[in-house]
Amino acid sequence: MIDTNSKGGRRFKRILLKLSGEALMGDGKYGIQLAMLTRIAGEVKEIVAYGVQIGIVIGGGNIFRGVAGSTDGMDRANADYMGMLATVINAMALQDALEKQGVFTRVLSAIKMEQVCEPYIRRRAVRHLEKGRVVILAAGTGNPYFTTDTAASLRAMEINAEVIFKATKVDGVYSADPNKDPTARRYRTLTYMDVLRQGLNVMDSTAISLCKDNQLPIVVFDLTARGNIARAVMGAGEVGTLVGASETTWA
Q1: What is the pLDDT of residue 246?
Q2: Tens of pLDDT along 49-93?
Q3: Confidence class of residue 135 from pLDDT cuts 50, 70 and 90?
Q4: N-terminal to C-terminal alpha carbon distance within the chain
Q5: Total domains present in the chain
Q6: Residue 3 located in a structural domain
Q7: Cβ-contact 87, 60 below 8 angstroms
Q8: Cβ distance 124 to 55 under 8 Å?
Q9: Are 134 and 92 spatial neighbours (Cβ–Cβ below 8 Å)?
Q10: Would residue 231 count as lying in a domain?
Q11: Residue 1 located in a structural domain
């Protein structure tokens, strides 16, 4: 059961927001769309104003995706490292957008590059969160063969986040692709085992298993709808799909 904290209207105190690199493209096909970046930063600022501590894991698919590179004949490990570097670019862009709106941030990278960001150290990340800074966690886990979904699950547990919010382009988890199957139905809640057994497109199986083993809930929601990040975090209605243990419900 997810605890509802009515103090100050907040449902959660510390969260992990998972953003795909594609989210930064907006309606473009590649790279970073400034308008979308600014909008996301504005919504994160709104959450920070409520006193919510927020860590962000961001992907790099808008610039380079390691799996795609490996299918084209590139060495998988090398391709994955290139993908990790792409996430650092996105993290720096998001940091810039947040700081332009007066939000204090820190970028912590799993790959050391002191000239542009801090190395990831768990205690340092937690300390930044306690000081009210948005912590952007870049470069995945720092290891090839692991997705940023797995990195999000790992970092969420390390910083003691109460929940993972996974931002997507659809309003939750469906039984099939709603763009291809008009009969697809949206799930309100799911268990971790439901996701694993049915092979639902929530997060990769390693990430789901990590969340299951540590009872960390996941909320999958639509980023394209303005204000949805705040709605989900503040518990205003049933935004998206909640994945958790069998007894987990929307309280």
Answers
A1: 67
A2: 999 999 999 999 999 876 776 777 789 999 999 999 999 999 999
A3: very high
A4: 7
A5: 1
A6: no
A7: yes
A8: no
A9: no
A10: yes
A11: no
CATH code for position 236: 3.40.1160.10
If you write DSSP's letter for every residue of 143-167 in order, what string do you get? STT--HHHHHHHHHHHTT-SEEEEE
Report helix angle 122-130 to 148-158, nearest 10. 70
CA nearest to 22, candidates 51, 74, 71, 61: 61
By three-state DSSP, how is residue 198 classified?
helix
Show the tokens assigned to 208: 């789901």
Q: Which domain holds residue 163?
A: 9-244
Partners of 105 in beta bridges: 134
pLDDT confidence bin for 3, thresholds 50/70/90:
very low
The CA-atom distances, in angstroms, between 46 and each of 51, 94, 130, 134 are 9, 15, 17, 12
Confirm whether 224 is domain-assigned: yes
Strand-pair partners of 168? 222
User: What is the reported pLDDT for 60?
Assistant: 93
Q: What is the pTM of this model?
A: 0.90
